[in-house]
Amino acid sequence: MIDVGFSLPVSRERKDALYEFLSQRYMMIALTVLPVFLLFTLILAFPILWAVGASFHDIHAFDPEWTWVGVENYVHYLFADSVFWESLGLSAAFAVVSVTLHVTIGTAVALLLNYTFPYKKFVSAVLFLPFLIPTAILGFGVGYMMNSTFGIVNWTLVDLGILETTRPWFGNPDTALYVVAAVNSWKFYALVTIMVYARLQSIPKEHYETAKIMGANAWERFRDITLPNLRGVLFLVILLDGIWMFFKFDIIWILTGDGPSDSTRISVIYAYQIAFERTALGDAAAISVLLFLIVGAGALTYFYVLEPEEEVRAE
Amino acid sequence: MSLDTDTDDANATIMDYRGNIPLWRHLRYRHRRLLRRSILYIGIAMVTMAILLPVLWMLVSAVRPISEIITRNPSLLPSTVTVEHFSTLFFDSRFPIYLRNTVIVTVGVVFMATTAATLGGYGLTRIDIPFKRTFARGVLFTYMFPPVLLAIPMYILWSNIGMINTYLGLILAITARVLPFSLWLMWKFFLNVPYSLEESAQMAGATRFQAFKDVALPMAKPGIIAVAILAFAFAWGDYTMALILMTDLDMYVITTGIEASFFAGGQIQWGLVLAGSAVALLPPLVFVYFLQKYYVHGMSAGGAL
Predict the structure, then answer these.
(1) Which of A161, A199, A282, B260 has its CA 20 to 30 A from that of B6?
(2) In this complex, do A130 and B207 lie within 8 Å of one another by their Cβ atoms?
(3) pTM (2 decimals)?
């Protein structure tokens, strides 16, 4: 399939016969869809079904015995565990703050990129760079730069007169979660920029020219041409980013863990702790399935009400 | 660019459609142009700095002597440049092992995810298979299962079949995170590549397989690049899956390794953390510098699908 720059000494007839053989319908299916189907079954469908099965059992990590407990795990977390509901609220807060920041910053940057200016290729590469930077490395760097005794961020703010004294950004239970969300936006705004920028480039230029001839000013052109065109992609990116941020784990775990007085113990961290600190795998599986159902229901409703996919097409 | 009003501004009417002369129009044309350009350049410069400064600060801090790392407000340029942290990192710590593990896993994930998504995307759009829409939707639906928590059933499964602490185990786990989105991207991508080209190749005597290999694949290049970048970003930056599935210190990747080795024991070894982070930052920086063209193109193609 890949042109390696030389050809094996195979006669033309045998090569043709091989291509003929590979072109048969069942061979094409085996070559194309089968690998992805097998991967899907092995690494996605099977573990998820396994988790559903496990959620009805009591399982401990170092004990091979599975004890059937029926829906007890679900009943416990839905009705008898206020921490679960608190964690769900924190997850939602984190997702809402993150998505708001990402969409605002991401769209603004995409609009800037849509102009022409010198070194544009390089600048756009830089602006998409955070997408490639490991979230954990961002976490280590932020831990260093926002340190309360020697962090550059703290001292710059003090020197500028914005802060009176340095503060431990991740130690305040009222704001820790939102500081992490803001830090995380340094990386994930790029997701919005990528999708919005691509959509902006596919808006026909004649639309703007016509509007200008009709006397529309810059704001009116933005409101009546740019925004309606971005509607679909923004709805889609809000959905994807929302799911992503609802399940965000790495940056929060690295910067605050479950936070000062559990203020950043979002659902996935709670489930992680249940699984690996309390070693109650059945309980953790039940939480996973609950989150799956909650997010799945939310996403499907969103998807069918707003139909974002219908409007996302390359033109 | 249509939004760039510099070129056609001279032809625009002075009055807006209500007959008012906006304040903006009282400026001379070249002053307006200058002002508009300045705002644009200041905006661009600000966001670019917001990305580059933290990265630069981390890279520079990695060559500072330790006394300067943990004191207040040193200048941007270090007083003395030291490679001490890097030599400790490479000759006196487990970091080279972590780096090797990360490279192996990244190559594996990029290969596996790109191949599977490209072939699958082609098959789902071109070949008549029963239930293929249901299958594609099903793959996308798994996107709604929390990735961290996907690792819990994987942890149970992998430990039953002895795949904890193996490269293949982690490669499969990260591929599981990339697969739904990348398959969806390639599916959309092939929907937008017209089938008529392959049909005409087949009418000209090419077999179905040749039409796929010589016509469809080259046209899918931007999509393939986008998926490869996505897979690279996920695999190189993975922390979560490695945290759960790699429990042996010799199988840790850079992200979990830095945390396990240099944050442990109460005292954070900032010199080593920064040097390790600098090494982890290098491939993305090289990517952006040398592969800009593919990166920007691949990224915007990724969004357009």
Answers:
(1) A199
(2) no
(3) 0.87
